[in-house]
Specification:
The chain crosses the membrane at residues 328-347, 413-430, 436-456. The chain has helices at 3-10, 92-111, 151-154, 162-179, 189-208, 218-231, 238-257, 283-291, 295-306, 314-341, 352-375, 384-394, 402-433, 436-456; strands spanning 19-21, 63-67, 73-77, 82-85, 120-127, 130-137, 142-144. The chain is of the alpha/beta class and 480 residues long. It folds into three domains: 1-27 and 57-151, no CATH class; 157-273, no CATH class; 283-456, no CATH class.
Amino acid sequence: MSQMENVFISKVEIVTGSMHAILPQSTGRYDVHKRVQRSNAIVEPAMFASARDASPTYLLPGWSDAVHPEGKVYFHRSGDLRVVTECDMHDPEVAAKVAAWTSHVLQCAVDQEITFTSTMELFLQPDEDDCNYYIVDHATQTVFWLTRDETDDLGLLPVVSPSHLQLQLQAQYWAHVENFCMHIGGLPQKCIDELILIFSHGLADNLTSTLSTFPYDAAATEKFLNLLRSSRDQIHEGYVVAIVARLWGLIMYNRYETHYGQDQARLSRDSSILVDEVDEIKWTKTAVSILTFRMSETYNNRLNSLFVDQFVFGNDWTSFMTHCMTSWQHSTVASAALLLFHAFCFFLPISPALAYSSATLSTLSILTSAVLINRHDELSAASAVPAHEFLSSIISPIFKFQGAAFIYSLPKVLFVYGLLAFVSQWIIILCQFLPLSQVAFFISVIATVFFALHVATSRTRLRAPILPSWRHNAKETSIA
């Protein structure tokens, strides 16, 4: 009997704490639990050479260690009930705790008449007196526990049906497979084949529709397709298992959000299928839209379309942020140019009040642009998760995105007001040298030209022809 087994037998523990059901995505895998100190070491003769065996590291019978492709070590046990843990099983006290909790879980299953099969795997995370756990079934690709719990207590999102809940549990299952991918011996061939079909359809959907609900754009989808096809014959390798599991997890979460297979699925990005529990105050929207020359309304519509049912697509967010940053930069350049034109005010008979107003508005436009660009610099290349967090933080319970839309439109609005104040100077100059009738005529001509341009570039269009039923109703939205 090894020294490890002797120590273990002398330290067998009796469970006194409680089991806590957790999700595979809630294990704190990426948390830093301790810091290490590097130091100099002695290099022994023939160290690590094949002619000299390294000192054996003892584990309990049935236990083995594995290293995840990301570098994290984990331990797994074969047997009637497979067990995995990220705790250090080289530590006798930790090993004793894991063994005690394993026996406790088995006894709880017997008490509830739950039979463990060879396709099931138990995850344990002992912590002081208690222990976090979950169980996966590789046969049905799901996660389950031994207690009756509410979805919100577990950290799961609300659902509309048992099959909708199953999509979330499958997403959690694939998170487990991704985290413990090196010991399972690979995945069935159909797992990667079906994933290739899903991404192939997603690529076609992106290429033929602007409102596809697939989570990636065409360029990223094509890269994933090439990766999956090149890995198809290596599905037994742990590295490929991690790739396939991560992509399956993303697909399952996307299916949850789009209500895949439910009575009402989300077939278009701009389709809201959830009941809106908050009534938005809308009279302010009209007033602000008039004050901002409809610029805030355009931003408001775009933000609402980005966050339909509080779900955001990463590529849509990136496109929106790129356009916003470009617009704010253009407003900065235009306002700076307008400020330079104020040099003529020293040589012309103008109104000081209008000159000060125009210069002040132009300066404010530059300042607001600078603040907005600085605030959104990191968000401009953010993925869907930080984009969702940001949009959740700026949406108002009663006004929704009206406030954010007004702020986003400020740089261009302030520039336009400054430009109007500056142009009105020329009307004052004309009144000093021309009769009022001629000034009125010039103003009428200019107003007519601008009205004609407005009508010619209006968003009002002829009614679009009815498209075949298989096509999406594509609705293009742009920021002015």
